[in-house]
Amino acid sequence: MMAFLFLRLRVMKPVFAVLWGLLLPLAVGAQTSAPGAKPGVSKSATSKPSPKKAVDKKKAKSKARPSVHADRVSRPQWVESPAAVRTPKPLGADELAIAERVHLGRLPCELGASVRLEADANQPGYFHVLGKGFHYRMHPVSTTTGAIRLEDKKAGAVWLQLANKSMLMDQSKGRRLADECAHPEQMAFAENMKTNPPPVLFDTTGMGRPND
Question: What pLDDT digit, counting tens, does each position of 129-148 carry?
């Protein structure tokens, strides 16, 4: 029996040698075909994403995190209410006293023009100054000359009332919109000035002449 097994192994030894000679080159070729490859890591896991996928990731990241500009725009801005914008600050006692002396109604002006003054029923001391092509909302302003002055600061318009006439000026453009406007009281004062001129403040007689 032992002799039979020894004979069988002796016969199979060349077969094993042939098989080893065939498998050894295959194993060596598999190792050299992937140098530096880490065991257990596939090629798909180590490969870098394509540029298109990287751009898509950046876009998704930017959409997920809103920018500072978008945050500022989305925040509600504080806006004054219409009542706060249209309702001006009440006038003082001095301004209200000036408002009582303003001539109201339609005042004829030079060159066939006219200006109409109306008191604002909703706000004491304020006036609507209307004419062809303009409409101002004015209030009194104190002056050192004694003249009555109404202003619309937002529009840059000024209404100046003197004893004998009134005029409307556009200070933003530096021109007069209406001149020689007169209320009946101003007309009477102007006629009185013609017959009774105001006294001369300085005596100019004899100026530039030698004393006798």
Answer: 999 999 999 999 999 988 99
> Which residues 6+ apart lie within 8 Å of 22 measured at CB?
none
pTM: predicted TM-score of the whole model, two decimal places: 0.54
Q: Which segments of the chain does DSSP mark as H helices, in order?
A: 2-33, 43-46, 51-64, 68-74, 82-86, 93-99, 184-195
From the list 128, 190, 188, 124, the residue with the least C-alpha distance to 159 is: 128
42-91 pLDDT, tens digit per residue, is 555 455 555 555 556 655 555 555 554 444 444 434 343 343 345 677 88
The rounded distance, in Å, linking the Cα atoms of 140 and 202 is: 32
Going along the chain from its start, the domains and CATH numbers come out as: 93-195 (2.40.128.50)
Q: Token digits for 53? A: 């996928």
Using the 8-state DSSP alphabet, how is residue 163 labeled?
S
